[in-house]
Design a protein that fits this description.
Elements (H helix, E strand, L loop, with lengths): L1 H29 L11 H10 L4 E3 L2 E4 L1 H11 L8 H5 L14 H23 L3 H22 L20 H19 L8 H7 L8 H12 L1
Amino acid sequence: MKNKLLKLSILAGSFCVVALSSCKKKIDDAYLNPNAAIRQPVENILPGVIGGFTWFSASAGTTYGVVVDGTFVGRYIQYWGINTTADTWGQMSMLGGAVDNGGSIWATVYYGQGNNVNKIIEWGTEEEKWDYVGAAQTIRAWGWLQLTLEYEIGILREAFVKGLNTFHYQDQPELLDSCRAVALRGIENLKRTDGKVSQANLAIGDAFFNQGDRDKWIKFANGIIA
């Protein structure tokens, strides 16, 4: 009797595992992300990343970017007419304020551009769109440069490690070295003519910055290195 009960328990357990696995698969198939497919064309990702040079305004987040920090840094150095304690000193997060004023560059580099740049590099490599890969690498170099110019420190090795709540920071010399190395890799990819490199196709994702002109992207990368 005990053996029969044991066999029935094992059989029931196996059935539950199979049933749950099948159920999960059907649920995942039936309820895909309503906002976007899991994989997007790199041509659709690049415009928002380029927009991050100034200001992000999207469903994933808004009101951050280098121009946002510029308004507060401008007050900090008394570039603007408003430089009172209430407006500036007590609000700048870099001075221990309770809000995130002055922290938009972090959101730009690691959130707004962040994994979007990673995906352009990853998927662009798989699709042999080397011009997109090079542009994304140049943008990554630009982001690290802006970050270290504002805060001196940054996160390199642990930047996109999932599950971490605290990070080890790298100092400016290492950020500048990494910035230079990534920009040089970007130039290498922007100079490639094999695969699916095409000015017309790059212009789809780069309609308002360089219009798909790789020479201008290379000039931009050289400016970062300089």
